[in-house]
Amino acid sequence: MSDAHGPVLCVDVGSTFTKGVLVDGDGTPRARAAHPTTVGTDVMDGVDAVRQELGAGDDVEVLACSSAGGGLRLAVVGYEREVTAEAGSRVGLSAGARVVHVASGPMAGADVTALRAARPDVVLLVGGTDGGNADVLLHNARRIARARVAAPVVVAGNVAAAEEVAAELAGTGRRYVVTGNVLPRIGAVEPGGARAAIREVFLEHVIGGSRLSRGRGFARLVRAATPDAVLRGVELLAQVRGEDVLVVDVGGATTDVYSVLTPQGEDAALRRDVVGTLWHARTVEADLGMRWNAGGIVEAADRERLTLPDPARAWAATVLADPGRLATTDAEWAAEEALARAAVVLAVRRHGRPGAPGERPRPLADVGLVVGSGGVLRHAPPAVSAAVVAAALTDHAGGWRVPDRAGTVLDARYLLFAVGLLADERPVAARALAAALVPSG
């Protein structure tokens, strides 16, 4: 870790666009550029195009994150669906993964078949609290060891059984990493070890493979999956601001919500939930997208009895049929705003609601800052973006207390991912960049 004085280029290689932010050594954002992601050839072609447009020569350090090619596909195999499997899923999302499969209990042949069919990049194997029952964890380790599942395994279950689990996987030549238990005791989710291990496996086996780039140059640049970098940026923003932060990223395919919360009062001392609160969390709503999943917003709004005007419903059908369609008239922007407001309300409701029966809602009422992000908001007129972000503060019908006293801001320059990339390698610059995200005064 060092704080070099020279500029650094932060690059996000997304599924559609490769975006770059050139940041001075003191953390001042200098310039931005974007280029279509070149998945069809080599993603480094898009990175080089961004680099050239920004005039970043070979002497400029490059830090990158990536969600290209669908990002990191994670399967979770746990003991009980509402306990360790649920904890594993939450930790996987916080690590920037897309959870494509969840299995719980002793795996049978059909479960192994379903796991293979999900085509995960990584398998997160969890189960049992530390010192508790290890039978299911060991059974599933044997099943995975003997199955034709090529994905590497991150073992994050009962530490008392870790050595035996490792022996089972090693015995058949499986690639694996052993880390701390995601649920060492009831009510205590500890994501740090698994999150770091998932990142390590992602970099080595997904980014380091030949799927996205032929050479090793890309692997040397990438530090994390994009959602992992964004969550790290949100964590640092919360530190710099000294307050809880909620981020809503409204995209064409999904709406992601990030929150970094500080336990207060009895939440800081008591663990009443079975799984426990993940205080730094991310949720992904795969049915709430402003283009490819616009129909999902309409359907979810109807289920939640949200009012959605007829023009917004018609606009959803239009953009679903033509995802490249952009709003141009006042009427279209009004429909776009209504659809985006619904996506924000629905996504934040889901993020705030209990993750399992008997749990409490996430304590979002004390959030001090709500950040809007995503291309949909960045390219909208300022009044539309502001109204969409404000929807998170005015929804009093979701069954939980909203952060109605929070300030709002739009990540219009797309800086959060860059804050996350810089956080550990150039912390002084990262803090300055985080501070620049929220205008003073």
TrEMBL record:
Pfam families: MutL
Superkingdom in the source lineage: Bacteria
Protein name: Glutamate mutase L
